[in-house]
Design a protein that fits this description.
The protein has 186 residues and is an alpha+beta fold. The chain is 26% helix and 22% strand. The longest helix is centred in the middle third of the chain and has 16 residues, at 75-90.
Amino acid sequence: MTELEELVLTPDERVGNVRVDSVTFAMDWSGEDQPGELAAFVARRIRAFGAEPTDVDTDVVHRVAGEDPTPRRGDVPVRLLDHLSEVAARLGHTLLVRDNGSDTYEVLVARTGGRELTGLTHEGVPVRAWGSEPEETLVSLNCPNCSEMLVWELPAGQTLADERCDCGAGLFDAAGRPMPGVTLHD
């Protein structure tokens, strides 16, 4: 049994051979299908571990987001995860995300007692605490000269210093900052 399974499954679930995938909540980057789904999932998982969450209400997050004069698509899920991560932490739990390289948040709830988690994987895919830096960063752009789409998966701390497109266009300066005219995809 991996450390991740021990953190995200209750003892009864482990004995019953429950799979980690069955205690995962998937949410598209643009938000929940129905408001409150993520909060209900987090509350249900915290209850499974024997704690009683009382402040998982995410209505306040939706209200504040609705009052934001410049909301962007995709902002609300991040705010929900930030809020629920704080709630979970107060109860000795951590929200985890599976970095599968897609635009979907795969969320798990782990009972951690406040200890820091590193080096977790599930089926070979990195799993990290929400809010922590990913071990790898995905960078993508379209070359401003030839329009070719370019994608890099960089280990933490690595930059694209002096990177050029195959067409010869300079994309990043010596410090790894995008050159003028280069726009990174969100």
